């Protein structure tokens, strides 16, 4: 796990990740980020390294009733081309609020593993923090998955601290890049965030402490 401290915490995280897995590489191939389901978070287009970074797919629309529907990944038409460097999804998605199901996420995890590319999960508005996603959804992580979180979405916007959970190779690369951006964190956010998971107090705080006046 690595902590990111900057004004635009998740934009910095994804700027590093997109540059790690996409854009121009040493073999002179331009790799892209695959967004399996759109509409997707428009902020991803800000930190990307160059034009034509994203390969996107339209979703299936499942009717849920009058004026209601759910977006689902269209696996029948989804393909991971040879120039794809990573898959990326947000859960839930901003601004539609769509939450990928456990089945969809597992299929994407397997698809990423089959093509030897990582799966990036943007969990800034969701799991594993409790009482924030109100549908059947389970946190998911493995050695080929990168999960991005944010303390600002659990009632601590002032600390402006992002969290990236990934394997050691990826976290070391992010740590080195982050050192160039910030050198020394100038806020108590990263220090606080490091202590809370280690002491196992974080989940108790977000479950039992209300930051909103009754």
Give your account of this protein's structure.
The chain is an alpha/beta fold. It has one domain (2-208): Type I PLP-dependent aspartate aminotransferase-like (Major domain) (Aspartate Aminotransferase, domain 2, 3-Layer(aba) Sandwich). Helices cover 28% and strands 22% of the residues. The chain contains 5 helices and 10 strands; from the N terminus they run βαββββββαβββααα. Strands 1, 2, 3, 4, 7, 8, 9 and 10 form an 8-stranded mixed beta sheet that branches. Strands 5-6 form a two-stranded antiparallel ribbon. Helix 2 links the parallel strand 7 (84-90) and strand 8. The longest helix is centred in the last third of the chain and has 15 residues, at 168-182. The radius of gyration is 17 Å and the shape is globular. The two termini are 34 Å apart. The mean pLDDT is 82.
Topology, pairings included?
Layout: E1 2-5, H1 9-21, E2 23-24, E3 30-35, E4 54-56, E5 60-65, E6 68-72, E7 84-90, H2 102-114, E8 119-122, E9 145-150, E10 161-165, H3 168-182, H4 189-199, H5 202-208
Helix pairs in contact: 1-3
Which regions have little confidence, pLDDT < 50, spanning 5+ residues? none
Cα-to-Cα separation, first versus last residue: 34 Å
Measured by DSSP, the beta-strand proportion falls in: 15-25%
Domain unit count: 1
Say which CATH homologous superfamily is assigned.
Answer: Type I PLP-dependent aspartate aminotransferase-like (Major domain)
């Amino acid at each position: 796990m690595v902590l990111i401290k900057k004004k635009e915490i998740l934009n910095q995280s994804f700027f590093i990740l997109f540059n790690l897995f996409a854009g121009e590489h040493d073999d002179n191939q331009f790799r892209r980020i695959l967004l399996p389901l759109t509409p997707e978070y428009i902020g991803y287009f800000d930190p990307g390294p160059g034009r034509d970074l994203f390969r996107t797919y339209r979703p299936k629309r499942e009717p849920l009733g009058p004026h209601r529907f759910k977006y689902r990944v269209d696996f029948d038409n989804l393909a991971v081309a040879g120039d794809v460097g990573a898959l990326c999804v947000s859960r839930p998605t901003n601004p539609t609020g769509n939450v990928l199901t456990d089945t969809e996420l597992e299929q994407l995890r397997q698809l990423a593993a089959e093509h030897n590319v990582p799966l990036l999960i943007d969990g800034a508005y969701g799991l594993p923090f409790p009482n924030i996603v109100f549908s059947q959804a389970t946190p998911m992580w493995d050695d080929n998955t990168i999960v991005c979180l944010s303390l600002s979405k659990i009632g601590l916007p002032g600390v402006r601290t992002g969290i990236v959970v990934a394997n050691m190779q990826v976290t070391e690369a992010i740590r080195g890049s982050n050192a160039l951006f910030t050198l020394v964190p100038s806020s108590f956010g990263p220090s606080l965030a490091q202590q809370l998971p280690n002491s196992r107090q974080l989940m108790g705080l977000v479950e039992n402490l209300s930051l909103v006046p009754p």
